[in-house]
């Protein structure tokens, strides 16, 4: 039995060794590359733009608020490594009109050249019980968090396929891997990004797409990890919880190294066991909070 298991493991490693060169992304050099960041006027998006700019990239920032865009532009330009670098700002809502998004991407490409990397970072969050969240909120979050990534990606992917060069990064969250209480509107919109990234990954082998997932860390930490993983990994995670979730939810997502595949196979059972304790703890917290809420209602009525 042990010999059979050992033979299976060796065969699996050999298979990964043969397949990984076919699915691993081609290196993307950031010096001189044109990087477009949606939602780039603040938070993780701005930090990603800064990180790419530090490595010599040309940046196009896309967001709605012009004042925030100009402020972000000034902050990013402080990190230039040569006098040729440019930061271009474009004010547009990436979730409303595809034709408008396509036009601004064309404008950016006319000024800074073809897009080498697109980072879809535009997004909003909202919490609340399912029955208390307005239906319009579900529509708004799906529009911004999902279509707000579909439209820019659709606008750049044809050129990337023609050039056989490019990265498209989707910034998701742990709520995009695990359904959480209070996030019935937000969580599905981030789950949709995962499905989009995996489906697109199977279309053009020359264009690799990365689903970025972060735990609660500073925007700078997350940005550094996402930019690093955008060069090779499909799934990017930050912190121990993020690492465990990325392995637990790998499903049919592609592997880009032998090590990654082995980690998923070896740790899946252990992490699933740990996850069951997490789920039990979450359920306990939710039930306890609901009971406390009911007690408070009773006290308020009798007061």
Molecular structure report:
With 303 residues, the protein is of the alpha/beta class. 57% of the residues lie in helices and 11% in strands. It is built from nine helices and seven strands, in the order H-E-H-E-H-E-H-E-H-E-H-E-H-E-H-H. Helix 6 links the parallel strand 5 and strand 6 (208-212). The relative contact order is 0.11.
Furnish the topology, listing elements before pairings.
Elements (H helix, E strand, L loop, with lengths): L1 H22 L10 E5 L4 H12 L3 E6 L2 H12 L9 E5 L6 H15 L4 E4 L14 H29 L3 E5 L14 H16 L6 E5 L6 H12 L4 E2 L2 H10 L9 H45 L1
Helix pairs in contact: 2-3, 2-7, 4-5, 5-6, 8-9
> What's the helical proportion of residues?
55-70%
- Count of helix runs: 9
Order of helices and strands: HEHEHEHEHEHEHEHH
Mean pLDDT: 83
Could you give the count of β-strands? 7
Task: Return the structural class.
Answer: alpha/beta
Largest sheet composition: 7 strands, parallel
| Radius of gyration over C-alpha positions, nearest whole angstrom | 21 Å
Low-confidence stretches: 205-216
Instruction: Report how far the terminal alpha carbons are from each other.
Output: 69 Å
- Beta-strand share of residues: 5-15%
């Amino acid at each position: 039995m042990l010999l059979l298991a050992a033979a299976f493991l060796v065969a699996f490693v050999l298979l990964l060794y043969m397949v990984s060169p076919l699915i691993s992304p081609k290196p993307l050099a950031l010096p001189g590359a044109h990087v477009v960041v949606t939602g780039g006027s603040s938070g993780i998006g701005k930090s990603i733009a800064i990180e790419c700019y530090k490595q010599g990239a040309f940046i196009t920032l896309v967001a709605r608020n012009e004042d925030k865009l100009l402020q972000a532009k000034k902050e990013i330009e402080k990190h230039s490594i040569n006098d040729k670098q440019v930061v271009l700002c474009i004010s547009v809502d990436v979730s409303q009109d595809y034709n408008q998004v396509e036009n601004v991407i064309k404008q950016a490409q006319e000024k800074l050249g073809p897009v080498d990397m697109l980072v879809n970072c535009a997004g909003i969050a909202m919490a609340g019980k399912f029955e208390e969240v307005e239906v319009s909120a579900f529509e708004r979050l799906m529009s911004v968090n999902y279509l707000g990534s579909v439209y820019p990606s659709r606008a750049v992917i044809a050129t990337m396929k023609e050039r056989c060069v490019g990265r498209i990064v989707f910034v998701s969250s742990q709520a995009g891997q695990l359904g959480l209480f209070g996030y019935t509107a937000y969580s599905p919109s981030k789950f949709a990004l995962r499905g989009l990234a995996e489906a697109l990954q199977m279309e053009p082998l020359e264009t690799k797409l990365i689903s970025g997932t972060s735990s609660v860390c500073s925007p700078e930490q997350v940005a550094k990890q996402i930019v690093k993983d955008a060069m090779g990994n499909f799934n990017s995670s930050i912190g121990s919880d993020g690492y465990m979730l990325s392995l637990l939810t790998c499903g049919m997502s592609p592997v880009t190294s032998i090590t990654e595949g082995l980690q998923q196979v070896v740790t899946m059972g252990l992490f699933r066991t740990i996850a069951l304790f997490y789920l039990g703890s979450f359920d306990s917290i939710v039930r306890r909070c609901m009971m406390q809420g009911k007690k408070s209602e009773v006290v308020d009525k009798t007061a």
